[in-house]
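Researcher: We plan to redesign the surface later, but first we want a full-length starting point. Tokens attached.
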């Protein structure tokens, strides 16, 4: 009985080995016939379809501050060469649609030459890295991309959850199915920092983009997410995937890029930064407060003019923040720490400011201290320019509260 079992196992092993050998020696024509193709094209050849991750340089435009990620798919046999990219509808003439959260996005397929021509015009560099998928996975990926293109721009524009890097990760996961991506130990950037901090560190040389990023992204950017979901910057995706492996132990991404376009334009920055502007506005508010002690009507009028400018700027910022949180469907604007200092209520109740101004000014000073002290939360929630602007408005409120008393003292 024991020998019979061993003999049976031997025959079974021989059967599987023979089947594998036959499959390996099966001709391309026979394999194609089994799949319903009547030709000699080897669709399982490694170079039948090629897939690359395309990474485009950042620009000074707000929605391109992080750069861009897309997928480059080619089939040389059929002379197919396309860039598949998630894009939104044009924002340039649809600012209102964007702020209402009604802008749409979807997958688009552009001939590679046409895609590169648009980036050449902007002077932005473009590189690509080969993604090491199996032949079947690459064909599956192309099928998935075609289906997404056919669906059109039917998704709400969501720069936070459907950013280009996250979208690339999502469709690659669809294509590889049960094959897992094995990530190397995650850097501290992904385990300890929030998505807001990751973005902030990347755009620290673009101060105005950083300023508006804090205004647009609420506390959703400060919540904890799995490390893979924190890959929001295209260059971070390159770094992570070059260290990650697929089921066969092969790196997800090649280490050597191919340069498709050299950058010809570079952002040189600007001397007029949000921090500099906020410092000047805070100084102006202090100067305005000092003018209340002057006996000169002209000096006091100058102080009043400064107050009007500061209150007007505050009203615009407060109206914008109130709209984003209360009325807009824009992603990540359900709550923002900036709504405490920047809201429309002080403007509405400005006539009765002598009743609430000292209390609200105290709240603003307390808010500024808490937000300036990282140790309260362990993360950066608000940038310094916004904190200084809040302090400037708090000084204006204190002056409005005690203005009559100061003028009386000055006239004695």
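Model: Full-length starting sequence:
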């Amino acid at each position: 009985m024991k020998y019979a079992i061993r003999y049976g196992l031997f025959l079974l092993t021989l059967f599987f080995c023979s089947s594998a050998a036959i499959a390996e020696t099966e001709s391309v024509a026979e394999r194609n016939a089994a799949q319903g193709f009547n030709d000699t094209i080897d669709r399982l050849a490694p170079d039948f379809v090629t897939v690359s991750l395309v990474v485009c340089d950042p620009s000074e435009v707000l929605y391109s501050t992080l750069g861009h990620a897309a997928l480059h798919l080619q089939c040389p046999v059929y002379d197919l060469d396309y860039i598949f990219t998630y894009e939104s509808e044009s924002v340039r003439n649809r600012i209102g649609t964007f702020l209402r959260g009604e802008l749409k996005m979807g997958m688009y397929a552009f001939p590679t030459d046409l895609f590169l021509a648009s980036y050449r015009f902007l002077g932005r560099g473009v590189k690509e890295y080969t993604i090491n998928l199996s032949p079947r996975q690459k064909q599956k990926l192309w099928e998935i991309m075609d289906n997404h293109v056919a669906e059109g721009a039917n998704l709400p524009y969501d720069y936070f959850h459907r950013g280009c890097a996250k979208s690339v990760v999502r469709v690659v996961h669809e294509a590889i199915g049960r094959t897992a991506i094995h990530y190397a130990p995650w850097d501290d950037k992904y385990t300890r920092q929030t998505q807001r901090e990751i973005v902030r560190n990347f755009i620290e040389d673009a101060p105005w983009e950083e300023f508006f990023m804090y205004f647009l992204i609420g506390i959703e950017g400060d919540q904890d997410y799995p490390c893979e979901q924190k890959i929001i910057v295209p260059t971070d995706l390159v770094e992570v995937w070059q260290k990650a492996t697929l089921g066969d132990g092969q790196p997800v991404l090649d280490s050597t890029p191919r340069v498709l376009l050299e950058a010809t334009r570079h952002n040189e920055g600007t001397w007029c930064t949000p921090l500099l502007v906020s410092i000047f506005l805070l100084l102006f508010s202090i100067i305005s407060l000092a003018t209340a002690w002057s006996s000169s009507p002209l000096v006091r009028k100058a102080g009043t003019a400064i107050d009007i400018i500061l209150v007007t700027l505050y009203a615009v910022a407060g109206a914008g923040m109130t709209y984003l949180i209360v009325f807009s469907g824009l992603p990540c604007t359900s709550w923002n720490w900036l709504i405490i200092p920047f809201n429309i209520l002080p403007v509405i109740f400005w006539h009765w400011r002598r009743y609430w101004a000292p209390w609200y000014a105290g709240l603003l000073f307390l808010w500024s201290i808490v937000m300036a002290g990282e140790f309260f939360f362990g993360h950066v929630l608000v940038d310094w320019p916004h904190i200084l602007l809040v302090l400037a408005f708090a000084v204006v409120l204190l002056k409005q509260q005690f203005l009559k008393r100061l003028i009386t003292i000055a006239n004695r």
